[in-house]
Amino acid sequence: MADRPTSPRPAVYTGGCLCGHIRFEAVGEPYDPHLCSCPHCTRLSGSPITGWAGFRRDAFTWTGPGTPSTYRSWPTMERWFCSFCGTPLGGAGDGAEYLGICIPSLDNWAGITPIGHSYRDKTPAWLPPIPSTQPTS
Question: Which H/E stretch holds residue 43?
Answer without folding.
Answer: helix 39-45
